[in-house]
Design a protein that fits this description.
The complex is a heterodimer of chains A (296) and B (272).
Chain A lengths: L8 H33 L1 E2 L7 E2 L3 H7 L2 H34 L2 H16 L2 H11 L6 H8 L14 H26 L3 H9 L4 H12 L1 H16 L3 H6 L11 H11 L3 H26 L2 H4 L1
Antiparallel strand pairs in A: 1-2
Helix pairs in contact in A: 1-13, 2-13, 3-7, 3-10, 3-12, 4-7, 5-7, 7-10, 10-13, 12-13
Chain B lengths: L1 H31 L21 H7 L2 H34 L5 H10 L5 H14 L6 H5 L6 H12 L4 H8 L4 H12 L1 H16 L3 H6 L8 H12 L3 H32 L4
The chains are: A mainly alpha (296), B mainly alpha (272).
């Protein structure tokens, strides 16, 4: 029976025919743009004129632009607010859901998953409404606590934190359910054995649950951090990057530049640099997780 | 006794978090039923003092809004179908067929997983502009079809299908494509639901690509329309919230229909 899957000519032809649409589309819309990006980044390039080779000039301009650094820093800060909060809440809540069974557990899972299907646009609109200075829910609550009204999205102190709330809301459910799937995969016998050895709840968490969820944490962390740094919809709709570029995430920075600057070289260079930065961040996260400390 | 209290306590927290998760959406829908004068007025009211249907009715009769909903639905359905077909066909090839240069092509596909969409956004725009695809329905559908992630997921799924079924079909003289079509496709429902819903959500919710490539208002995608609507309508919050509610309903309904598969899918996607 093995013979059937051996290499033969008709297999080869069928294989290429069936791969062709995928390879063609990937080449046209991913591979060519990637190489083209590298090409454009070395040129003074726009749609209407002859392109001029300028070497590393675009990169130099990006790397000497304080706004670029500010945008990268904003992306990192945004991730640093969203991801830890999301992680801790999701981890605690996943442990809680595990104790809930039946219909009620199902209701809770469904409810927390729903925001995941909502777009950043709808989330932005809801939270713009909640943050409205005069009639929004946020200031209503603040005032009933006897505090002063806050300009959530216009005050440099609050703007980034304010757009983090919808991001946490959108991502919380899926993060929780992924962690829950991981928790459910840990054999019950591990815990039973630990109890016989005299372990308490804390020991079980530290020595069984967390180490066995390592790969899931790693996945969620890489996807979460790179996703948060690339957030676009929320700042685009809620603040437009303001106040004073305080919420100008890297993607919004690139997009804004794209709409203003007819020369694409600068924009493309900054996007490629963002790519490099994201790759470095992912590599650092991998490295941290695979260091000895986490293995013990 | 203490144990029992604990369980009620956990249930209560679970209930509160569940409500907190859906509260913003319910509140959005409620705002759509309020009069414009009431929507941001103090004291804060959850339910409208008078239920108004005019916001919703006006939108459902608004040709631009409804055309955008219909067009986005069309784009998302066509794209999702193509995504499932093209990526699963390739996944089948990588899972089952042997041919020279297979490893090269596998790497070629998988490599694209590591390219963030932002890095190629502007050059993709240049490519579609040069192909004269700007302001056409094709620019909305085609560039997002090929997806290494989906090929990967579906291939993982196919690798777990036992080969006995195919062997019988081979003996009956079926070719590779027929085996894909008649044996693999019908078995693929669980992974297709996962891939399909994710794809549909991606298309329905997409913002940055339509904003860049579509300026013809007859082709506005729903999230794009909503974003512009927000900046044009300024403070007509009741209307904006009604519009957002209508735009969110299709994906919520879709989710509720397929939620069991999606929650199962978290396991299929094999993060571990």
């Amino acid at each position: 029976m093995k013979k059937l899957s051996a290499i033969n000519r008709s297999d080869k032809k069928t294989a290429f025919l069936m791969l062709l649409p995928l390879i063609g589309l990937l080449t046209a819309f991913v591979i060519i743009p990637l190489f083209y990006a590298v090409f454009v980044s070395f040129y003074k390039w726009n749609f209407y004129q002859e392109n001029i080779f300028i070497g590393f000039e675009n990169y130099k301009r990006v790397l000497s632009d304080p706004l670029f650094y500010k945008a990268m820093w904003t992306g990192l800060k945004f991730a640093a607010i969203v991801i830890p909060i999301q992680f801790v809440l999701a981890f605690l809540f996943a442990n809680l859901i595990r104790t809930l069974g039946g219909k009620f557990g199902g209701f809770v899972k469904t409810s927390i998953y729903i925001p995941h299907v909502i777009s950043g646009v709808v989330a932005s609109i809801i939270f713009l409404f909640i943050y409205d200075f005069d009639g929004g829910l946020a200031n209503f609550i603040i005032q009933s606590l006897g505090l002063e009204k806050v300009a959530w999205l216009a005050d440099v102190k609050f703007a980034l934190a304010s757009i983090s709330v919808p991001a946490i809301w959108l991502g919380f459910g899926l993060t929780t359910l992924v962690m829950l799937a991981g928790l459910n995969d840990i054999p019950k016998t591990y815990y039973e054995a630990a109890v016989i050895d005299g372990a308490n709840a804390w020991h079980k968490m530290i020595y069984i649950t967390i180490p066995l969820l390592k790969n899931i944490f790693l996945y969620l962390l890489v996807v979460g951090v790179t996703g948060a740094i690339q957030q676009f919809d929320l700042p685009y709709l809620m603040t437009g990057g303001g106040p004073l570029n305080e919420t100008m995430t890297p993607n919004l920075f690139i997009f804004t530049h794209f709409t203003k600057d007819p020369y694409m070289g600068y924009t493309v260079s900054s996007a490629l640099l963002l790519f490099v930065i994201l790759a470095v961040i992912s590599a650092v996260i991998f490295k941290l997780f695979n260091s000895k400390k986490m293995d013990s | 006794m203490k144990e029992k209290l604990n369980i009620y306590g956990l249930k209560l927290i679970g209930f509160l978090v569940a409500i907190l998760s859906i509260f913003p959406l319910i509140w959005m829908a409620m705002a759509g039923f309020k009069k414009e004068s009431e929507v941001l007025s103090y004291p804060f009211k959850f339910f409208p003092s008078e239920w108004i249907l005019t916001n919703y009715i006006e939108l459902l009769q608004n040709p631009a809004f409804m055309r955008s909903i219909g067009l986005t639905l069309f784009v998302a359905v066509v794209a999702t179908t193509l995504i499932i077909f093209i990526n699963s066909m390739a996944a089948y090839v990588f899972a089952r067929l042997e041919f020279p240069t297979k490893n090269f092509w596998w790497l070629y596909v998988i490599m694209t997983l590591f390219i963030p969409s932002m890095a190629i956004l502007i050059p993709s725009y240049i490519v579609v502009a040069k192909l004269h695809m700007l302001n056409t329905i094709y620019v909305l559908i085609i560039p997002g079809i090929a997806s290494a992630m989906n090929v990967f997921l579906i291939r993982q799924f196919y690798l777990n299908i036992p080969t006995e079924l195919e062997d019988a079909a081979f003996i009956d003289g079926a070719n590779r494509f027929k085996i894909y079509w008649y044996i693999f496709l019908p078995l693929s429902v669980p992974v297709f639901v996962l891939v399909g819903i994710t794809a549909f959500l991606g298309y329905w919710n997409s913002l940055i690509w339509p904003i860049m490539t579509i300026s013809d208002e007859r082709l506005y995608q729903i999230m794009q329309l909503l974003a512009y609507f927000r900046s044009d309508q300024g403070n007509d919050w009741a209307m904006i919230m009604a519009g957002s509610t209508i735009a969110a309903i299709p994906v919520i309904v879709l989710f509720l229909i397929f939620q069991r598969h999606l929650i199962e899918g978290i396991k299929i996607s094999g993060i571990k």
